[in-house]
Specification:
The complex is a heterodimer of chains A (about 500) and B (about 325). By secondary structure, chain A is of the alpha/beta class. Chain A has 15 helices and 20 strands. In chain B, strand 6, helix 11 and strand 7 form a beta-alpha-beta unit. The chains are: A alpha/beta (about 500), B alpha/beta (about 325). Chains A and B meet through helix 9 of A and helix 2, helix 3, helix 11 and helix 12 of B.
């Protein structure tokens, strides 16, 4: 295996030419200044109203960029979850479940438009709460969340075409638990198809990112959504267990770690509840020697450093064809030198804050294991803020399949680089993982793209691009990355019963 | 050359220098347009842009008087804004001596002349070389030539390179800028390949340039990106630094800043100088001045303070 180290001198012995990415023309801070309109304290959203938790307890949500308290969030216990499910069942029996699809569509359109109206406010709130760069929440999270509501609004009066030859009916009440990496977007992925199909919802956001969920509750009120159709209960793992373990829901939809997904699946074994699980990933991004390399490098960077690598489908394993391995690594290093890491609220920031101290600890620990196991580490010499949770974009070269950093999901800005020689080896290495959520293929050869896309065991295979999402496109995994699909017609089918 | 061998020639060249994915390039450059350049960084960037302008007039109706006023503008873009001189004036060969008279010697503003039967290049090589020599003899410091697009598209790369090499010789000490005329090369693959063909026969600090400004599509962030990536790859390979000049279609200060962001994030600080990067433009200068005045006073300027018509320089 080539060592992938940079040559420091040319053949003639002169120092190798290098690019200077210095401070000759430094960008001034460009902070986004819109008011996120946060409340000091957020209650639970049950039966169309904000209600105090029965326990009377609240926990702090902090801004990971500076560790300052953002708001207090209600801690829901089992009784609150009971109340939420009771409200959802009542709404399903009396209003939502009986409403014609064309009427439900109007509410979804209204939610989508209200979200667009307040897009800037939501983007700022999302960035403050989760640490992602404002340019991502502004250009991706919020518009994509609105797009999901629009798309499913369009379906609500056309459900007879979801499964031709069948009649479709809602499942009833569904319980949903979502992660902290795309708080608002995951919420939209979950509730938009459920509502379009006529289901009612009890949803728990992640404990570190409840703010935009509860802000969306304000939009649901403004949209006049009937009470109880959507209920939000906030809290930690215990609250989540109460949501997934409750007898009322006909279906549990979970997005999160494979570890927690397995616990939920065990707890639901033997019940008649339907499930969809969207779990972890360790995607292979495969670059062949005939790929357009500069665009591949851009795709690799987008694949692993988008949202600080807190992406279940992140391209965290780079498989690069041996003839171009040195070249790709050199290009990647130069590209990393111009990534801007820092204050997520700055419009020029490319990598924001790690979501929580706990996640930062996990990333740090796995990176240390990579160094210990002998992989070669590269980090650009960028300055990090002193307060808050930050991690430099990291490359590991000389990685082999037995390294922990090649097998475990790091969920951070850390790329493990492996090499391959033949197409078969690439497929074998890509599929040699417990996960199977996504993959990327970079080549100029169309036939190779088609071959790879059939042989890669991954729910999504991107060709000459990476991390592209659309409400019309189903998303979901193979193997321990879960089952069920979200988005598109297939996503709707997971929220209905067919007769 | 027959169709088949020209196809083989392209295949070999692409294989050698690599290909470009157009969707990926456009996605990359779209990110430059979301950069937010404020306050001191904006003023610095605008002044840098002004110093990189090749203030251009290339019209059939050019007169010595018009060229003289252009030169005056080049030397003193504005009285109150502390704006540097532009890099050069760019004129037709027949106007070079008038420009030299207007600028004098040792003023810092260089004289660039298009030559080689600009913009089509459709004249015998002998005529094109004679034009280059005449322009240099009249006082041109820089020559902007066009490549033989017909030969390039036919896969006759040696002919393209031989002609460029002949112009290099004809230039003597003058700096050469090689215009690829990107809109006639049609694909990003071709633009990258042509960049390499040119870079391999020109000298350090000679330029490659996007376009003549005489066709429908001129400099875009996309073709600028493809060319500066080619320059970067060639530099890292050989240590020879080639300069870059996007030309045509860059009319606003905002556009100029986006091009400079591309340079900063692709080639780095060593190219943020008018020795390595130029804008071929005419109306751009007044928009830069307009924005600098706005930064200074906080007020947007009425159109009659800074005209958009280059005739009024």
């Amino acid at each position: 295996m080539p060592t992938l180290t940079e040559k420091k001198t040319t053949r003639s012995g002169r120092p190798a030419p290098e690019l200077i990415f210095g401070d000759l023309w430094e960008y001034d801070p460009a902070p986004e200044t819109a008011d996120p309109k946060l409340k000091a304290r957020y209650d639970l959203f049950i039966n169309g109203a904000f209600v105090a938790p029965k326990s009377g307890k609240y926990f702090d949500s902090i801004n990971p960029a500076n560790e300052q308290k953002l708001a207090e969030i209600a801690l829901a216990n089992k009784d609150d979850v009971d109340a939420a499910y009771a409200a959802a069942q009542r709404a399903f029996d009396t209003t939502w479940g009986k409403m014609p699809g064309r009427e439900r569509a109007k509410y979804l359109y209204r939610i989508a438009r209200l979200l667009q109206d307040r897009a800037r406010e939501f983007a700022v709130a999302e960035t403050l709460d989760g640490g992602k760069p404002i340019k991502e929440s502004r250009d991706f999270d919020v518009p994509m969340a609105a797009a999901h509501f629009f798309y499913h609004a369009g379906w609500a009066d056309k459900l007879e075409y979801v499964a031709p030859g069948h009649k479709v009916a809602p499942l009833g009440v569904v319980g949903q638990v979502i992660p902290w990496n795309f708080p608002l977007l995951m919420l939209a992925w979950k509730i938009a198809p459920a509502l379009a199909m006529g289901n009612c919802v009890v949803l728990k956001p992640a404990e570190t990112t409840s703010v935009t969920c509860l802000k969306l509750a304000e939009i649901l009120q403004d949209a006049g959504l009937p009470p109880g159709v959507v209920n939000f209960v906030t809290g930690f793992g215990e609250t989540g267990a109460a949501v997934t373990g409750h007898p009322t829901p006909a279906k549990i939809a979970f997005t999160g770690s494979t570890e927690v997904g397995k616990i939920i699946m065990r707890s639901l074994a033997g019940t008649d509840k339907k499930m969809t699980m969207e779990l972890g990933g360790k995607a292979a991004n495969i670059v062949f020697d005939d790929a357009p390399l500069d665009q591949a490098v851009e795709g690799i960077v987008n694949g692993i450093f988008f949202n600080q690598g807190h992406v279940c489908c992140a391209g965290s394993r780079l498989l690069v064809h041996e003839p171009v391995a040195d070249k790709v690594l050199a290009k990647l290093k130069n590209r990393l030198k111009v990534l801007r890491v820092g204050d997520p609220m700055d419009k020029n920031t490319d990598l924001g804050a790690i979501n929580s101290r706990e996640q930062l600890k996990r990333i740090t620990e796995l990176v240390a294991s990579g160094v210990k196991e002998g992989a070669e580490l590269y980090q650009p010499p960028c300055k990090l803020p002193t307060k808050g949770f930050y991690f430099r974009p990291t490359l590991f070269s000389g990685v082999s399949m037995s390294h922990r950093i090649a097998r475990e999901e790091i969920f951070g800005p850390v790329l493990s680089i492996l090499t391959f020689r033949t197409v078969e080896e690439a497929v074998e290495k890509a599929n040699n993982t417990a996960y199977g959520l996504s993959a990327g293929v970079w080549t100029d050869k169309g036939s190779r793209i088609l071959k790879m896309s059939t042989e890669l065991k991954a729910g999504v295979v991107w060709a000459n691009t990476y991390n592209k999402f659309d409400p019309t496109s189903p998303f979901g995994g193979y193997k321990e990355s879960g089952f069920g699909r979200e988005g598109g017609r297939q996503g709707l089918l997971d929220y209905c019963q067919l007769t | 050359m027959s169709g088949k061998s020209s196809q083989a020639a392209f295949a070999r060249l692409f294989d050698e220098v690599g290909t470009v994915d157009s969707v990926g390039v456009e996605e990359r450059v779209a990110k430059y347009t979301t950069r937010s350049i404020k306050k001191a960084a904006k003023v610095q960037g605008l002044k840098l842009a002004a110093s990189m302008i090749d203030l251009t007039t290339l019209e059939g109706k050019d007169t010595p008087g018009k060229v003289a006023s252009l030169c005056q503008k080049a030397l003193h873009p504005h009285d109150g804004l502390d704006v540097p001189q532009v890099a050069a004036v760019c004129v037709y060969p027949s106007m070079v001596r008038h420009a030299r008279k207007a600028l004098g010697h040792d003023t810092g503003v260089r004289i660039a002349s298009v030559a080689t039967a600009f913009p089509s290049g459709q004249a015998p090589l002998k005529t094109r070389l004679a034009e280059v020599k005449a322009a240099v003899a009249d006082g041109a410091d820089e020559i902007d030539m066009v490549i033989n697009r017909g030969a390039f598209l036919a896969g006759e790369f040696a002919e393209v390179q031989d002609e460029i090499a002949a112009v290099v010789t004809a230039c003597g000490d003058a700096t050469l800028k090689v215009i690829l005329e990107v809109s006639e090369l049609e694909t990003y693959d071709n633009i990258r390949a042509a960049s390499f063909l040119a870079m391999r026969v020109i000298r350090e600090n000679d330029f490659i340039k996007t376009s003549t400004g005489k066709t429908s599509l001129n400099a875009t962030l996309g073709n600028n990106q493809v060319m500066i990536e080619a320059i970067r790859d060639y530099y890292l390979d050989t240590g020879i630094a080639i300069a870059m000049k996007p030309a045509g279609g860059i009319r606003t200060a905002k556009q100029a800043l986006q091009f400079l962001i591309a340079v900063k994030e692709t080639l780095g600080d060593a190219w943020l100088t008018n020795a390595r990067y130029r804008f071929g433009a005419s109306s751009l200068l007044n928009d830069v001045l307009r924005q600098l005045e706005k930064e200074k006073t906080g007020a947007y300027q009425a159109p009659y303070y800074f005209t958009e018509a280059t005739e009024s320089y």
